[in-house]
């Protein structure tokens, strides 16, 4: 019998199913609570490209050149060596039973017998440089000091008065005033400058010859001139330096001590004063080989001028009063003025190879450098020093050791320039050739000192120097001159000039047998279609006013004791001009001018010494007042002129000599 009576088993099964369902629900709730939303992962773009930059980068622009014209470098076809002579024989060709002979046609025959060769054309050289230098150096100093020790103040104390210095400077500068000093700024102005200088030489020779203190030498020969006299050896500067400047200023170490007892009788002391010892120096060395060549050929004229003008002017008139009268005889004027000029002729000769039994060597070709237009090589240098050192000292001695220095000033202008360009075996000029070397040197010193005493000052004890000055002008010109120049052009030079002017650079056959060119297998040639201007100009000026006033006193404490040692120096000044020009010259070999050869040179050495009635004559000649009378009646200032400081000379020239080619 089937029945449903097992209720216990059914209940147990129901409970187990329910229990399992509950357990699963709990598990689902635990898993839900533990569930966390995963964050979004950012999108990857890779590494950022980093570029390093320099914000401080600087770009240096090139030098500004106004009005610059670009010209491409000239080119020529590449040349080959001359082909040797080759004998060419006809070749028989059988063509349909007929003999055809091929005739050899030479490309060019150079006259090498039966051989045929290709003649080499002329080489084209690099462009010739054009150099000009303008230099102006100016120094100006005013060092007018007043020193008063003690309670003394003399009346009518003048200070910084340069009126008399201005008068003396005018007289000195008038010596070279006949020459033009304007800076040429164009090629036409350069030609006029040479013409004016030649005329100025004639004028200066006529006006200055015979004036006392001035020596004029027209067309000086090679040699050394010192103060208008020829000598065999030039003086040395070290032998003429003032004693105060020649002595080294090195302090000595103290080796002991001295007791000073102030009792009114045995007071010892020293007063040292240095109010002079000024030195002004202008120095220049100029070397020019701008268009140097062994041989020259000029279609026009050759002009050569050389001039040295040197002037030393000084006033060394000292006044001694009261206690200084006894020192007047031992402190006479001792100023040395030296004008030294040296003309050196560097003319040489091209060495011709000695005969060896072999056939002589002559040029077979040349290298051509062409410059169209004028060539200007100019060096213009101006150096100027002005110093006013008029000091006033009122010194009192109280038994102490006193050292006062109000001088010892130094001014220096120095320059050295060398224009070293290419040299050529032959220089051909289609126009004129102008060559000039000019040196102007002027020294002006006004050293009128006043020495006085007061207040019962006793006899002077010690050393005193109020002069011992040096004025030094030294100039040297080394040039070639016109010894090797001849007028008239050989035919092959005329042919070369005509061909070069038309653009034909082939060397004429006449050069292949020119005896002056023997030993040169090939020529390095420069052709200039216009004029050549070669000028070296130097101007040097030193002006010094050193008029010192010294008054010495002794205080009442020392009225009965006069053992103070005074060491006073108001002179020992040095004004030095040194100039040297070394000109490479225009032709050490045989040179020709189609027109004329003109040479003009002059040497002027002047010494102007101011004198007053009652003073010693010193050295040299008296003041040449005739200069002003001959050269310029209105140049000398009026005696009633205001006492004002002298001003700098007008040395402002336009330095644009190459028409904006100098930046």
Automatic annotation (TrEMBL):
It comes from the Bacteria. This is Uncharacterized protein. The lineage of its organism: Bacteria, Pseudomonadati, Pseudomonadota, Alphaproteobacteria, Hyphomicrobiales.
